[in-house]
Design brief:
This protein has about 220 residues and is mainly alpha-helical. The chain has eight helices and three strands, in the order ααβββαααααα. It starts with a helix and ends with a helix.
Length: about 220
Amino acid sequence: MYLFLILAMVVSWLIQWRLRSKFSEYAKIGLQSGLSGKQIAELMLADHGITDVRVISTEGRLTDHYNPADKTVNLSEAVYEERSAAAAAVAAHECGHAVQHATAYSMLQFRSAMVPALSAVSKFMPFILIAGVFMINTSMIPLGIGIALFALTTLFSFVTLPVEFDASKRALAWIDKRGIVTTTEHAMAKDALWWAAMTYVVAALSSLATLLYYVSIFMGGRSRD
């Protein structure tokens, strides 16, 4: 189990490195359409009849996200201004989440419904797990509660996967249909989004591995009873 956790950490680091490498590579290649990330995002929203979502710039690198609470597509400074395959991919992907929200995509609704509960438990869950491990010889209850709460975060990680893959699917279909990218640029955009998706896959598997680790501790404690 320890080996698997270490392997997951190494794989996660490698994928993050590869993702940054790909985005840096594709950011240097200008779009033939000449559109910036901001323009692409606004165009995709307009094409889907979405008029109540704003496209804004946010600080940082790879900090792009859609916020359903205030209905904003937040593009990192580079993506907001750039006119590249990488910027097109990211801008369209985040707008894909806005389209999911507007069309009441079921998995996004399920994921959003989990957020309040996760925000509440994430503050004290680590302390419960640690306390549960130390108290395992006297009581199994704290660790059992900690495992149940951690299982919720693991479920959230896996629910996130179809949401992310669907947003990328919508993004790639739209940029093709709208003629935003050429065939070569489409391949770069698809590759960039695939590596981004892999970060979520590894995160979900790492969460599952950690959950199983705590379950193994719990089962070991029960066997001593």
